Amino acid sequence: MSFEIEAKDLLGRIGRLYTKSGALETPTIFPVVDPKKQELKLSIINKYFKNIITNSYFIYSIFKEPIDVKKFLGWSGIVMTDSGAYQLMRYGVVDIEPDEILRYQSEIGSDIGVMLDLPMDSEESYFSASIKVEETLRRALRAAEMRGELGGMLLVGPIQGGIYGDLLARSARRMSALPFDIYAVGSPTTLLEEYRFDEILDMILRVKLNIRREAPLHLFGAGHPLILPFAVAAGVDLFDSASYVLYARDDRIMLRDRTVRLDEVRADYLPCSTKLCDKPVKEIREMPKMERTELIAEHNLAMLREEILEIKQRIYEGTLWEYLEEKARAHRSLYNTLRIMRKYLKLVEEYDPVTHPEPSGLLFFGDTSASRPEPYRHRLRIRHYYRHPDKPVAVLLKVDFRPYNKSWEYIYLNKILGKFREYIHVYFIDDIFGIVPEEVAEVYPLSQHESWGASEALYDDVAFISKKYKLIIIYNYYINGRNIVNVNNIDEIINILNAIYSTATPPS
Ligand SMILES: [Zn+2]
Question: Which residue of the set 9, 82, 237, 251 is catalytic?
Fold first, then answer.
C-alpha cells in the first residue's frame, strides 16, 4: 500500500503517500515547474512545498534522452511528472508514443508519473469524448501492464469523460479495476478558468462514486484557495497547479476567498503579511516586472500553503463542513457546490466518519446544512435500523431545552403519565434531525447543535411513524394527519389518553 489515511471528515482526508523518495502528507499541491521558463526559484518553492510537478514531454523535447530530472531542476524533494497530454490538447501533436513517454518518466527519476491520456475540454462533443475515453482506457490497460518495469514510480491513471456523467462513471469504474497507485480527474481546466466549480465538484463526486475508496485522487489544474476546500471535501487528495505563477504574470494576487488585481488595490498595503506585502502597494507597482512577478508568485504560493494547512486543521477538528459554508458565500458557483454535495449525500454519509476525532462541541446548521451527512444518517437510522417500540401511542414533543430529555416538559410528562407510560413512546421534534427518540436524545450531535430553518423531511418522518402507531399526539407543533392530534398543553395529553383508555381494557 502506497497510501495511508490518518484522519477524515466528509470525503476529505489527511493521508500519507509513500513514494520512492519518501512520504508526503496529503492533501497537498504540486506547484508546476516549467523547465523552459521558471520565474520563481525552486529554492523559494521549497519553503512552501516539498513536492513539484514538471512536464516530462518538455524535458524529452529538449534532451531526447534520459537525464536526471532532479539534478536538472536542482530539486531534492519529490518530483511528479506529467506526460504531455496537455500539450496534446492545446497543440494536437505529441511526437512520442504512450509507452515511450511513460518509460521515459521512470528513466529520468520521476517519483510519480502519469500515463499519456487523451484529455478533453468542456466543448467536446459526446461522440468525440466517447472515442477519447475508449482510447484512454486502451492505453491504461497497457500502462498497467508496464507498471512492474517502472522502477517503483507511482503510476497515475487519469479518468476521462469530462462533462458527460455516464462516460465519466464508466471510465472511473474501468480504471478502478486496473492497478494504478493514484487516480486523477481529467481536464477540468476550462471549467476552472470559467469558475464552474459546481460542475467540477459534480465530476469529482461522480468519480468517487465509482473508484476504490482508499485510492488517492488527483485533480489536474486546480490551484486557487477558493476551490481547494471544496475539492478536498469531495475527496481530492492531490493537486497540481501553475496558477501561482500564471496569476503573478498578470499582477493577480490570490487571497483566501478571491483574487485582486494589483492595479485595483486602493489601500496602501495588501491584506497579508508575507514578505511581498511588507512593502507599500505603490512600491510593488513600481518594481521591475520580473521582480514583481516573482514576489507575487511567492505570495500566491504562500496563500496556497496556508489554505492547505487550514483544510488539514479543519479535517482534524471535524469542522470541514462549517468551513465550506463560510467559503461558499464568496462565489455563486461555490454556493451551488453545497447543493451538489446534497445530490451525493449517500456517498458523503458513507465516507464521513460517524464520530469525528474530537467532536468540538456544537454543530452549526444554516440554510445549506440540509446537505450535511449527520441528519441524513440519523434519518436512515430512523427509517431502517431503529426499532420503534411496539406501543399504540407516540407523543411528539417540540421543546426548546437541550438535551431534550432534560426539558421540563419531558420531566413533567413522565411524572404525570402514570399507568399510561408503558403505552406511549416519546419522540422529540428537531428542526434539523426530524424526530429524535427519547432514549437517544443525548447522543451526539442530536442535542449538540444550533440551527435555523426547519427540516423539510420532518413531515415525511411523521408520516412514516404514523403508520406504526395507532395515535400520534404532537405537543407544541402543528402537523396534520389522519391519526394525529395536536395539543398546546402537556396536561391535554393525559386527558386524551384518559378519554381513550378509560375502560379497563388496556390498549393493544
Ligand atoms: Zn502576501
Answer: 82
